[in-house]
Amino acid sequence: MRKIIIAGNWKMNKNLQESIDLANLVKRNLYNVEEVEAVLCPPFTSLSDVGEIVVNSNIKLGAQDCYWEKEGAFTGEVSCGMLKSVGCEYVIIGHSERRQFFGETNEIVNKKVKAALQSGLKPIVCVGEKLEERKSGKTFSVIKDHVENSLADLTREDMLKTVIAYEPVWAIGTGVNATKEQAEEVHKYIRGLLKDMYDEELADAVRIQYGGSVKPDNIKELISEPDVDGALVGGASLKADSFADIVKNSIKK
Ligand code: PEP
């Protein structure tokens, strides 16, 4: 059984006090929800404080990025060990904004994924096509390239700790979510790729989130699809009510 996982990516939003307030409200809203794994991914500056709020609760802490080296002269970067030390269990890697604005390639993503796993973090690895790629029929080839190369050379054991987030770039922050059919088609395709790379048992075990304009009122439809195992949520994770409602509405009956 794959446990539903809903992660809130706060991106570059919320100063320290705002982060503390939001984390406290989310925690209060979700105190009795055990069926779904809820993860908060605040900016680096708030990780430690949010980590203290959610420690020993049902809510997990995640970072939005990491660097692959353990330590040293890499000004501005944050290592996986540092993330672990403030209580992170998850780290988002290869978000489309990192790929688009910061030049992250599959090779860079792969290095980060391996470093995260080596330090005991669970990576949430983002893949997804741009609008022009979808329009020109390249969706599956882009996804294949992202999945095979971002996740290259992972052991079976490591792959089982990894979450994949299918995030069509055209759906991120646009208010236009993929339909449940569009999401399911790609999720099923990704599961097929995992079967080819490993085997059917592994493909059935890996969790695949959908991301892109998820809201409390569309998560029910999306999560009803057999291969959709949760969501990576941007905008709607910035308000405690909407994030908590997404988590609650994702409980598969
Ligand atoms: C995201 O950035 O991962 C995302 C899915 O954003 P939004 O929910 O705002 O579309």
What's the alpha carbon Rg, rounded to whole Å? Answer: 17 Å
Shape: globular
Tally of distinct domains: 1
Largest sheet, strands/sense/barrel: 8 strands, parallel, barrel
**Pairing-aware structural class of the strands and helices?**
alpha/beta
Low-confidence stretches: none
CATH topology: TIM Barrel
N-to-C order of helices and strands: EHEHEHEHHEHHHEHHEHEH
CATH-defined architecture: Alpha-Beta Barrel
User: What's the multimeric state?
Assistant: single chain
Strand order of the largest sheet: 1-2-3-4-5-6-7-8
The share of residues in extended strands comes to 5-15%
The percent of residues in helical segments reads: 40-55%
CATH class descriptor name = Alpha Beta
Notes on the structure:
- The chain is of the alpha/beta class and 253 residues long.
- It has one domain (5-249): Alpha-Beta Barrel (TIM Barrel).
- Helix content is 44%, strand content 15%.
- The protein contains 12 helices and 8 strands.
- Helix 11 links the parallel strand 7 (208-211) and strand 8.
- Helix 1 (16-29) packs parallel to helix 12 (240-249) and helix 7 packs across helix 9.
- 44% of the residues are buried.
- The model has no long low-confidence stretch (mean pLDDT 97).
- The structure holds phosphoenolpyruvate.
